[in-house]
């Protein structure tokens, strides 16, 4: 049996998918979670073979949850998303995610991906992969992206600096660099742009 954890903050989608996957002879649903933090906790508790993680959840997103899970246990992780942006795919793959599929796929397709990933293979939806190849590369450095992520909820420069263990002056320099590269006037605009392009 392939032991699966499902994390999605939309109750109807999560419970429906769990019910449909439970009909498969070789899949057992061992945990259902509403957010990324609880997905990490339950993964450590139940040690599933595969974690099926929604990209956009409260708190930490599916990619960050996958990264934390993989650091602690050998579970395979599949990210499911309604908005399959190429930048997010690149971030997911760099975090060690094993599968990436849109929510528009049928439950049978999701089951097939779970089997592939459990067998040690990787799966990326072909349309998402094609979009990623043609999409522009992110011009921002990893540290600049960290600054945008840390300030995504409107945190002050001082709060961002504290969370990243940087000086406020260094954070201001990174913000200035981001705005210059993107040709934007505010950090809020930069965060919106980075989200829309799937960079954060």
Order of secondary-structure elements:
EHEHEHEHEHEHHHHH
Strand order of the largest sheet: 2-1-3-4-5-6
Q: What is the β-strand count? A: 6
Number of helices: 10
Termini separation: 35 Å
As an assembly, this protein is: single chain
The average pLDDT value, as a whole number, equals 91
Estimate the strand proportion: 15-25%
Radius of gyration: 18 Å
Unreliable residue stretches: none
Q: Give the overall form.
A: elongated
- Biggest sheet character: 6 strands, parallel
Structural class call reads alpha/beta
Helix content: 40-55%
Note down, in words, how this protein is organized.
This protein is an alpha/beta fold and about 200 residues long. Helix content is about 55%, strand content about 15%. It is built from 10 helices and 6 strands. The chain has helices spanning about 10-20, 35-45, 60-70, 85-95, 105-120, 125-135, 140-150, 155-165, 170-180, 185-195, and strands at about 1-5, 25-35, 50-55, 75-80, 100, 125. Strands 2-1-3-4-5-6 form a 6-stranded parallel beta sheet, sandwiched between helices. α8 crosses α9. The chain starts with a strand and ends with a helix.
Summarize this entry quickly.
This protein is α/β, with parallel strands linked by helices. The protein is about 55% helix and about 15% strand.
What are the salient characteristics of this protein?
200 residues, alpha/beta, 6-stranded parallel sheet, 10 helices, 53% helix, 15% strand
